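Structure first, sequence second, as always.
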């Protein structure tokens, strides 16, 4: 849809509809405050309060509510003061100084005509002062409860500064490790991202948005951002509608069903219409199909960027497109404030559309209780980084670390057998880097690093020798490697802290080569040659390609960016105080050229198998060939990833036995129980994440080779066993078919239970129509 181009409309000072609005508003107020209040015993519902207030607002005041301004330097009460007084601002973002926030609230409440309080937004992505693991790390916990508790702490800390709205969770399905923002995501799987996204929303919003310490959440980025071409940030996406609905939109639908207050549009372009102007997404799907009654904020300046995309000829057209599509609030731009009034006066936008968009914003303000309590007293709130917050941060970090390999039981390290340890690498003692991306308010002084936690844990009995060896993860100089190799040789074991710093992932920080940067692979080789057990602890914001070091080390703990308490969590795992229980929320490619590679792919008409593929080195030089393998694989990388989705080892040994299905045939609308025995066959107590996968064998559209449909964290003592049970309702198997309607189709399904997406215990059942 294009707005009809018209120019030269005079900036009218007098508008008949404003006079009408104010008079009408007064009448509505009088009517409501007498009649309704009498009837309802002085209590108006939120909807009545919204309509009452809306009826009194001028067009400019409405447009003000639709405008969010950057208050980044926190002197906003000065330079934004006049606009706040005039009701030209509905929300600010990026000021977390409580006095400044209170002063801005005071201006709008006491000095603006209608006294409408502000929404105060901030990116509280994985913690406020206390930092939790990056969201991708939190996803590796497969634990909605710890994710929820982390969000609760983040909300409580943020709320003490006057923040009442966070721009999280980020639930963009991410299948491309090159994309820097994969760090902020909950991984590649729609089911996992839905479960954990909902947990985060519940943690931020609590059961009562108006309670102290709860804040509004924002599911972002709607939609498809994770599919940016080549993993380059902000780039175009190409997602067919069926894929969009079955994969990318699923976590958003779950977020809406869970009552998320707001959504944020994506910067990206979806099939020719940037998300911020995409009425198919914002009107048809979000409002019509899902009945979303919250509001949508643009991304930073993404309304004005519609012009840069080439969709409009300037800000005026951009305002038109975004409003028409249903973007309630413009973040950090001035297209709305400068152009909506003119567009209404010209008759290009109607008042009903504006009223509708403003209603969503006012509703959120009432739900947050801002009209009753616009001000914040930090003394009423949780203190920063209290003991409880640090414990949650540590527990989340502990559960997020994934043991990728453990040859010869190199881990856990046995303290009594050690007299010296070499701790080597640029990320062993990097308090800021372990926090990861998007930590505006995180305090690196609170960080406990791996090195200090190891020293603390081993005490005086073990000599801990630290060699940084590289200034940063990107350093190319190998000069200090001699000292590192020397120290390694003289120690009983080596712990190498490798990876990438916080700056190498996050927004606009994509990489095309996702190997360990700099000379790290060479450092690994030099240390390995010292002949001692080598443990790699990798801190990173994405899956890195580890093919060039995976066989050079004995064990790998993948710790993501683990947050404030990452060090103690890692130390406890290294020395077996706890056993690792994290599982991969994303597939680890062997080489970057395999991307996109994800577990829930389609089967294709020529699926590869171990027998069908040929390796480039095995092509016979003397027998000319014209075809090789004839299946979906790479000659130089095969078809399997380095580590599959859901993978993660433990110090214990788990076995899955006896998969059972409660019925071999189930009617549409019924539930089937799938179970298996999980046995800890070792002498070590540990937690395992049991996973349920399903394949719909024949569909009206092709279906993934497997889809995660359930998971459970199970704690087992040595030699203990437990029946792990999953209830599978036939609705859980619904998908969007050719008609783009969500439904379950009858036919055969294969289920698998196991400790990763390789789940080998399998059974089949059939869904039939109900009688
Ligand atoms: C990001 C959003 C973020 C916003 C405000 C944008 O650049 O894409 O995710 O919430 O900035 O900081």
């Amino acid at each position: 849809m294009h707005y009809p181009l018209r120019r030269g409309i005079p900036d009218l000072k007098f508008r008949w509809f404003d006079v009408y609005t104010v008079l009408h508003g007064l009448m509505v107020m009088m009517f409501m405050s007498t009649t309704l209040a009498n009837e309802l015993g002085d209590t108006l519902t939120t909807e009545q309060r919204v309509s009452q207030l809306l009826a009194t607002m001028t067009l400019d005041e409405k447009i003000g509510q639709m405008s969010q301004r950057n208050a980044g330097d926190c002197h906003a009460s000065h330079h934004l003061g006049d606009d706040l007084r005039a009701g030209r601002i509905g929300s600010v973002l990026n000021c977390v100084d409580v006095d400044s926030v209170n002063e801005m609230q005071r201006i709008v409440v006491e000095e603006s005509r209608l006294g409408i309080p502000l929404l105060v937004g901030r990116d509280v992505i994985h913690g406020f002062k206390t930092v939790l693991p990056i969201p991708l790390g939190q996803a590796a916990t497969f634990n909605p409860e710890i994710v929820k508790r982390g969000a609760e702490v983040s909300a409580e800390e943020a709320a003490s500064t006057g923040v009442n709205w966070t721009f999280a969770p980020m639930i963009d399905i991410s299948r491309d490790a090159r994309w820097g923002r994969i760090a902020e995501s909950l991984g590649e799987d729609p089911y996992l991202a839905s479960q954990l996204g909902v947990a985060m929303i519940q943690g931020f919003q609590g059961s009562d948005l108006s309670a102290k310490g709860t804040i509004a959440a924002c599911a972002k980025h709607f939609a498809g951002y994770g599919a940016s071409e080549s993993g380059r940030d902000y780039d175009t996406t190409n997602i067919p509608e069926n894929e969009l609905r079955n994969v990318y939109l699923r976590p958003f639908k779950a977020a809406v069903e869970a009552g998320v207050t707001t959504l944020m549009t994506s910067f990206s372009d979806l099939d020719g219409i940037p998300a911020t102007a995409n009425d198919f997404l914002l009107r048809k799907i979000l409002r019509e199909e899902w009945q979303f009654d919250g509001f949508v904020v643009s991304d930073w300046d993404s309304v004005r960027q519609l012009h840069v995309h080439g969709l409009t000829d300037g800000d005026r057209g951009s305002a038109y497109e975004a409003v028409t599509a249903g973007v309630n609030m413009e973040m950090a731009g001035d297209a709305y404030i400068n152009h909506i009034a003119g567009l209404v006066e010209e008759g290009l936008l109607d008042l009903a559309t504006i009223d509708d968009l403003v209603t969503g914003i006012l509703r959120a303000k009432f739900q947050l209780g801002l009209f009753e309590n616009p001000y914040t007293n930090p003394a009423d709130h949780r203190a920063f980084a209290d003991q409880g917050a640090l414990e949650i941060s540590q527990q989340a970090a502990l559960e997020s670390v994934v043991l990728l390999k453990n040859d010869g039981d190199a881990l856990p390290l046995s303290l009594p057998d050690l007299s010296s340890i070499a701790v080597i690498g640029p990320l062993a003692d990097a308090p800021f880097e372990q926090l990861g991306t998007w930590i505006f308010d995180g305090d690196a002084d609170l960080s406990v690093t791996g090195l200090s936690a190891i020293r603390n844990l081993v005490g005086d009995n073990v000599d801990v020798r630290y060699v940084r060896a590289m200034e940063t993860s990107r350093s190319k100089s190998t000069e200090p490697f001699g000292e590192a190799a020397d120290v390694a040789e003289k120690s009983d074991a080596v712990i190498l802290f490798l990876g990438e710093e916080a700056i190498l992932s996050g927004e606009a920080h994509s990489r095309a080569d996702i190997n360990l940067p700099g000379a790290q692979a060479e450092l690994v080789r030099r240390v390995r040659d010292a002949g001692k057990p080598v443990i790699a602890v990798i801190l990173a914001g994405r899956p890195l390609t580890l093919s060039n070091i995976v066989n050079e080390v004995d064990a790998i703990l993948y710790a993501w960016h683990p947050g404030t308490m990452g060090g103690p969590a890692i130390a406890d795992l290294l020395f077996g105080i706890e056993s690792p229980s994290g599982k991969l929320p994303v597939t680890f490619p062997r080489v970057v050229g395999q991307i996109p590679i994800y577990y829930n792919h389609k089967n294709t008409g020529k699926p590869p198998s171990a027998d069908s593929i040929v390796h480039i080195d095995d092509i016979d030089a003397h027998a000319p060939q014209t075809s090789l393998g004839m299946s979906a694989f790479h000659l130089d990388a095969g078809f399997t990833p380095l580590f599959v989705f859901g993978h993660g080892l433990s110090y214990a040994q788990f076995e899955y036995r006896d998969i059972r299905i409660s019925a071999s045939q189930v009617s549409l609308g019924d539930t089937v129980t799938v179970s298996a025995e999980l046995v800890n066959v070792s002498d070590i107590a540990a937690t395992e994440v049991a996973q349920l996968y399903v394949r719909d064998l024949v569909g009206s559209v092709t279906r993934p080779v497997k889809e995660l449909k359930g998971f459970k964290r199970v704690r087992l003592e040595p030699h203990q066993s437990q029946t792990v049970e999953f209830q599978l309702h036939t609705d859980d198997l619904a998908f969007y078919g050719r008609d783009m309607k969500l439904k379950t189709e009858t036919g055969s399904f294969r289920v698998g239970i196991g400790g990763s997406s390789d789940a080998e215990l399998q059974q089949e059942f059939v869904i039939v129509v109900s009688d």
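Margin note: The longest strand covers residues 686-696.
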